[in-house]
Amino acid sequence: MLARAFASFGPVYYKWLRACFAESGVSFPRMKLLGALHSSGPKIMSELGEELGVTARNVTALVDALEGEGLVRRVPHTTDRRATVIELTPAGAKYGLEMASGGHLDKVAELFRALSADEQEQLRRLVAKLESLLAGRGFGTGGLCGGDG
């Protein structure tokens, strides 16, 4: 059954991704958060949590750590006093580019290089179609880092 195969692949794939990033000393959740801000711009905390698929507590811990390193900053929302917007600092934007150009995404993309060009294109189309179907059901999607890996 296709649903079972996909459900089985997902957790193994994310375990492998976390291991790829951990080898370089960068956590996968950290890269996802920086990637989300890089690809889509500033976001409120709840949007980040939803996009990353983590709890508010986890987003707060990630943002606290990244803010402590000067990679992100909290700014007041312009119209909602209850919301805080998270944005990349110049250092955070530079760090994200270094991570992307430093081979982290290339390492992730190596798995897909084992597929032929036709298989890669077919997979890209199928994933885009699945994302579109989910978006039509109210589940927006966000890419890893805006890359093609």
Task: List the topology elements.
Blueprint: H1 2-23, H2 28-40, E1 43-44, H3 45-52, H4 56-68, E2 72-76, E3 84-88, H5 90-101, H6 104-113, H7 117-136
Antiparallel strand pairs: 1-3, 2-3
Helix pairs in contact: 2-5, 3-4
Question: If you had to describe this structure to a student in words, what would you say it looks like?
Answer:
The protein has 149 residues and is mostly helical. It has 7 helices and 3 strands, in the order ααβααββααα. The chain has helices at 2-23, 28-40, 45-52, 56-68, 90-101, 104-113, 117-136, and strands spanning 43-44, 72-76, 84-88. It has a 3-stranded antiparallel β-sheet. Strand 2 (72-76) and strand 3 form a beta hairpin. Helix 2 (28-40) crosses helix 5 (90-101). The chain is globular, with a radius of gyration of 16 Å. The two termini are 26 Å apart. Residues 142-149 have low confidence and may be disordered.
List keywords for this structure.
8% strand; disordered C terminus; mainly alpha
Task: Give the structure's gist in a few sentences.
The chain contains seven helices and three strands. The protein is mainly alpha-helical.
Total of DSSP H or I helical runs spanning 4+ residues? 7
Low-confidence stretches: 142-149
- The helix-and-strand class reads mainly alpha
Instruction: Give the % helix.
Output: 55-70%
Tell me the series of helices and strands, N- to C-terminal. Answer: HHEHHEEHHH
How do the strands line up in the largest sheet? Answer: 1-3-2
* Radius of gyration using CA atoms only: 16 Å
Kindly, what is the distance between the CA atoms of the first and last residues, rounded to a whole number of angstroms?
26 Å
C-alpha geometry: globular
Give the number of DSSP strands: 3
Write down the overall mean pLDDT: 84
Task: Tell me the β content.
Answer: 5-15%
Q: What does the largest sheet look like?
A: 3 strands, antiparallel
